[in-house]
Amino acid sequence: NQRVLTGITTTGTPHLGNYVGAIRPAIAASRQTDTDTFYFLADFHALIKCQDPEALNQSTREIAATWLALGLDIDRSVFYRQSDIAEIPELMWILTCVCAKGLMNRAHAYKAAVDANLAEQEDADKAITMGLFSYPVLMAADILMFNANKVPVGKDQIQHVEMARDIAARFNHIYCKKAPLLALPDYQVDDNVAVLQGLDGRKMSKSYNNTIPLFLTEKQLQKHINKIKTNLLEPGEPKDPDSSTVFQIWQAFASPEQTSDMRQAFADGIGWGDAKKQLFALINEEIGDARERYHDLLARPDDIEAILQQGADKARAISKPLLEKIRTATGIRRLS
Ligand code: TYM
Asked: Which domain holds residue 237?
């Protein structure tokens, strides 16, 4: 069976972009029988961006509850928390020792942070932590620890998966030329899955502060949708669907028929207020039931914890023996 693995950083509250781009396709894949799926909460990655303990813990809880409420099949899929798998940071160290520093210098996320510091005339070497610099090595350990073949991600993460592949090849070359221990992963970017736009028309992202959280109350959801930026065209004036965020989000939730109907409605001059009301109804129908399950689950953190512990047991059954082989290959082993 093909091994599919992906992670989600436990900062912030899940938004429609995470749902459409990552969670919805992942949950659909968890129900397929010809793939083994591994989904995890990347809480070690969260430490890079978040040094507020309560916020990190709350986000972990919310993201776990989100996946479960949306119907992740926890019998078929391995669902765990990164920090429960002690083998991952250990593998990270081993990989750090075969990874050229120059590879990390080229990482987009690191370069963007350097540029941002330069722009503010701050000393990047003081502001950027080793955690941010080494982020792709930790991500490589996440992937390689489970010999994942396919890593579904958004475009922003492609480079990291390519780095994981490079690092795996380097490890195999040094330590196990004849029988490679690490599988070379491929990224999977689904072109049918949209990069959802946020309230201001840019990519929906926590860092742009333009998100629509997934499980708002109905009232709040309508309120957020009303905040989506539009042009000033009045009802009755034809509108261009392809430059409209309202239409872009519509498309991500609608059937093909509903999409072509909305396209026609734009041509016929549907008013923005009306289009947004319809968008609310469409999204609400898809996630309404999950919202209730989500709030039930959030009230039962012990149940979420028990599920994560079961997932960690399943994950460790795979990571422990592989790490043992990796240790042996490197010479970290008992004397005999
Ligand atoms: P993170 O937590 O930033 O995002 C999780 C996933 O959601 C996708 N995504 C989006 N897709 C469509 N539209 C959007 N507006 C949108 N916003 C986010 C992201 O591309 C990502 O796939 N480093 C990773 C987490 C990670 C990981 C891993 C992933 C840690 N280890 C190992 C795969 C394999 C991250 O920060 O994703």
From this structure: 215-296
